[in-house]
């Protein structure tokens, strides 16, 4: 902070006269003279050549003038920075994502979000949808990315996107010889419920019970009237996809994995079901608990990166 003595010194330097400085400061001339004298005594140097008319700064005075003006500039920048800090959003956002979606969403969203909002701290929590629902219900998350329909009526749901559930087979899988897929939308081959009967004896790489994709797999098997063997169960979708790429079995996954960089090129995706099975992804929020401003900004950033527009009224969703 620039002191009163420094303000008086600057006024004298600008006016070139103690009396004119006093007039500009609405002070008496003796008060201004005493202030200058105390300042010079504190510094141990004479700041003005009193023989000169108008007053002229001594070498010490020139140096002190630079010092005071630099202090003024630092104070101005500090005030600017503090005012900007008050205007910038700040706080902590706790967001829940399942393991594989975290690897898709965070790398695409967080770097730009943190550059834009450097004072917002994002704390991700990863787990199954049951884990995330418990954390959200306990108030330990601001929101979570979950799927609908879901068994959590205590949460409000904001649409993000619809995703088809895809079947992945290795491109040289023998079962492909018994399949006659139709042309599906967006360039993917499609297998109807009757076509899926050819997979009765095909081993499947499944996620652990309690995970959304495992529930989707059970729904698809039931709808197709098949009970294929389980080659392996795992918590990691990445592991299941990589094993499928090595010929260890078929795997079911959301089409969101097509956007990632971990999908092995040896896998061939199919849409399945009549109509194609899909789920709705969205933001689960505790009903009646408004999102903080920082949390709203993160929701908006995820929406901009992954959203497909507003939810379609009456759009079919796969039962969980």
Describe the structure.
The chain is of the alpha/beta class and 320 residues long. The protein has nine helices and 13 strands. It has helices at residues 4-15, 18-25, 29-43, 59-87, 99-116, 129-137, 212-224, 237-245, 293-306, and strands at residues 48-49, 56-57, 91-97, 120-126, 143-148, 155-170, 182-183, 189-191, 204-207, 230-234, 251-254, 267-272, 278-286. The strands form three sheets. Strands 3, 4, 5, 6, 7, 8, 11, 12 and 13 form a nine-stranded mixed sheet that branches. Strand 3 (91-97), helix 5 (99-116) and strand 4 form a beta-alpha-beta unit. The protein is rod-shaped, with a radius of gyration of 34 Å. The two termini are 64 Å apart. The model is unreliable at 310-320 (pLDDT under 50).
